[in-house]
Amino acid sequence: MIENRIVKTELIKWREIKPLQPDNLKHIFNYKYIEDSILTHGFSMPFFVWQNGNDIFAVDGHSRIEVLNNLENVPEELPATFINAKDRKEAIEILLEVFNQKSNPIANEVLTEWVEIEQISVNVQSLNVKIEDVEDKDHADNVKELTNMIACTLTDEESEIWLHITEKLGKMKDKNAIFELIKLYSNETNII
């Protein structure tokens, strides 16, 4: 029988939630999207927490806590869903294996059609959108290898510059924006 791990959902003093994961475990590449989502739609998804004695630990919501700490007019209490775990080890396993799975990508064509039908505006850059299906397995492996190799960490100032540049280029995935910038730079300097 599948175990129900959800104990309860209630309002808690979110500023008292303790981190369960190290601060530097993940880079918050989508900070601005989380902030924009909260400012646009409010706090719409509860934290997921594990309680050990009087201490409450974040199982999911670390990034939202960081964003909320930098916003004004945030309620003192926000909803949290309590997860049952026998100990810290099991809570960490749930954190890693349940809340940090890779998301299923959204099919671009279906998303585009759905957004048009529903007449809504969505920040596509904040979504995991699959642009095209890769039929050739060798090509798919090469794309996967390259994707795994391209990574960078931006300072807050660099992140703002990047957001400004991508806004100028229009709505496109970061990868496409990088290649667009490479083309622009290459044309100016005659590198390629």
Task: Please characterize this protein's 3D structure.
Helices cover 43% and strands 17% of the residues. α1 crosses α2 (62-69). Strands 1-5-3-4-2 form a five-stranded mixed sheet. It has a two-stranded parallel sheet with strand order 6-7. α4 (108-118) links the parallel β6 (106-107) and β7. It contains seven helices and seven strands; from the N terminus they run ββαββαβαβαβααα. It has helices at residues 31-41, 62-69, 88-97, 108-118, 137-149, 156-169, 174-189, and strands at 6-13, 18-19, 47-52, 55-60, 77-83, 106-107, 129-130. By secondary structure, it is an alpha/beta fold. The chain has two domains: 6-97, Alpha-Beta Complex (Conserved hypothetical protein from pyrococcus furiosus pfu- 392566-001, ParB domain); 106-189, no CATH class. It starts with 5 loop residues before the first strand and ends with a helix.
